[in-house]
Amino acid sequence: MEEVLLKEGKLLNENGELNEAGYAFNLVKEFNKDVIKKQKRIKLKEWNYYAFLNDENGVLITISNLTYSALLSVTYVDFKVNKYITKTFTKLFPKHRDFRLPRHDDKKIYIKDKKYIFSINPTGEQATFYVNIQNFIEGHRLLINLEVSKTTDKSIVTAIPFKKKGDFYYNEKSNLLHAEGNIQFGKKTMNFKSSYGVLDWGRGVWPYRSTWYWSNLNVKTPEGDLLGFNLGYGLGDNSKGTENVLFFNKEIYKLNDVEFIFEQTKNKIDYSKEIKLKSKSGDIDLTFTPLFNRHDFINLLIIASNQNQVFGKFNGTIKVKDKTFEFNNYIGFLEKVINRY
Hints:
Layout: E1 9-10, E2 22-24, E3 29-30, H1 38-41, E4 44-53, E5 57-65, E6 69-78, E7 83-92, E8 109-112, E9 116-123, E10 126-137, E11 140-150, E12 156-161, E13 168-185, E14 188-205, E15 209-220, E16 226-233, E17 245-248, E18 251-254, E19 259-261, E20 264-265, E21 268-269, E22 275-278, E23 284-300, E24 303-320, E25 323-340
Parallel strand pairs: 1-3
Antiparallel strand pairs: 2-12, 4-5, 4-14, 5-6, 6-7, 8-9, 9-10, 10-11, 11-13, 12-13, 13-14, 15-16, 15-25, 16-17, 17-18, 19-22, 20-21, 22-23, 23-24, 24-25
């Protein structure tokens, strides 16, 4: 497998097909979605997914527009008791103006309804996050106020084709985002202190059925360094460019293949057991010990999503050139997602 470094230019040609497949360390390709053919537009999927974690708690925010449906979701994660609370709102055939997502993450997102407000307002290398959900749990309102800033100007970007012409996936994972602020449940306010996370920015025309494996981690080490990784596979043809990278402070290091090795019980994955992450070269040698599984299953007839997002602790090493990076009980997540939409 020989990976290709993407060149600057438009993502799609006049037929709505990828000009080239590969990877880059920023969004070098313009997402010119206007050339997507009419028969393909119903399959257009756009989303922004954010995950901010620390040793005590975490916040996950999803905003997605799947053309014929839209989804807004917030999850609060508590690592002190290993539990989570999720509130999800879905709409079939939403008005496009109500769920318009920008072509990049440098534009404002504002979505409002009687039940919620989702607002992300970027200014340069920072962004203000505001979420207001009237009834998050047991009649209590949820308020999230976060200031999120980039600590590096590097990300991992992939442009991936599928078997059918005109199907593609354009994705950016921006790691080591720093988040601070507060979270309010009813009258109780909690500080959300010194957390790090990832933006998963995705745009594409996909097959109706898809499966992917993804793992992500972002921490500040005891030595004061920022360390993270993004590892994944399974979605489309990534022979020209994987999304596998290691982040260290302001640097990014490319990795090749990875495999998630699960234990099974009665021919089903047991998400409570240790999971191995390994590469053929041996450069990736991680063990993931689960804390709990955030399992969400959505079935809206033509739309279905079976998600197992497992939170846990990583131990092991990743080798890059002459450097070895160690992971010692660092909290991150690993997931397998099966979609039909």
